[in-house]
TrEMBL record:
The lineage of its organism: Bacteria, Pseudomonadati, Bacteroidota, Flavobacteriia, Flavobacteriales. Residues 52-119 form the HMA domain. This is Cation transporter. It comes from the Bacteria. It holds the Pfam family HMA. InterPro entries: HMA_dom, HMA_dom_sf.
């Protein structure tokens, strides 16, 4: 019994000596990190700037939450971009940007940086975004028309439609 007590006393003293350090200074480790804080709220947009609107198709997206949102966030974080929206169903991106800071080529590069599989097609500058679905002509090659069948392409334009394809028919 006495040996057990002596052994326990030695173990206790050893643990106490190892656990109690005489150094009172904490160990300092330096870790380098790259922080990029660039949100829409933090961005400064020039109220006197000339803003252009661009619409373009994006090929290679496989899901709305992963692909489309990733591309949308990547474009929206760019300096000079006022707004960005990527519609997965239409495979269409709509971006409003400062012409002095952003070019169509930089938008295309941002999409490419979001993922290797994404490809920009049919980029054009527009005066207003096409928010509503429109009827496709038989020879339409836009991303929103590509998946439509022959029956849906033959649909007539609405009476109040102001799209170019319908304006010619009136």
């Amino acid at each position: 019994m006495k040996t057990l007590q002596n052994l326990l006393a030695i173990v206790f003293i050893s643990v106490a000596m190892i656990a109690c350090k005489t150094d009172k200074e904490p160990e300092v480790k330096t870790v380098e990190s790259k922080t990029e804080i660039n949100t829409n709220a933090a961005k400064k947009l020039d109220p006197n700037a000339t803003y252009a609107k661009a619409e373009f198709g994006i090929e290679g997206m496989t899901c709305a939450m992963g692909c489309a949102k990733t591309i949308e966030k990547k474009i929206a974080k760019m300096d000079g971009v006022k707004s960005a929206k990527v519609d997965f169903d239409k495979e269409l991106a709509m971006v409003e940007y400062d012409e002095a800071m952003v070019t169509p080529q930089t938008l295309e590069e941002a999409v490419a940086k979001a993922g290797e599989t994404y490809k920009v097609k049919d980029m054009k500058t527009v005066t207003s975004f096409s928010d509503e679905k429109h009827d496709c002509e038989a020879n339409c090659t836009k991303a929103c028309c590509a998946a439509k069948t022959e029956d849906t392409k033959k649909m007539a334009c609405a009476d109040d439609c102001k799209k170019e394809c319908c304006a010619k028919k009136a």
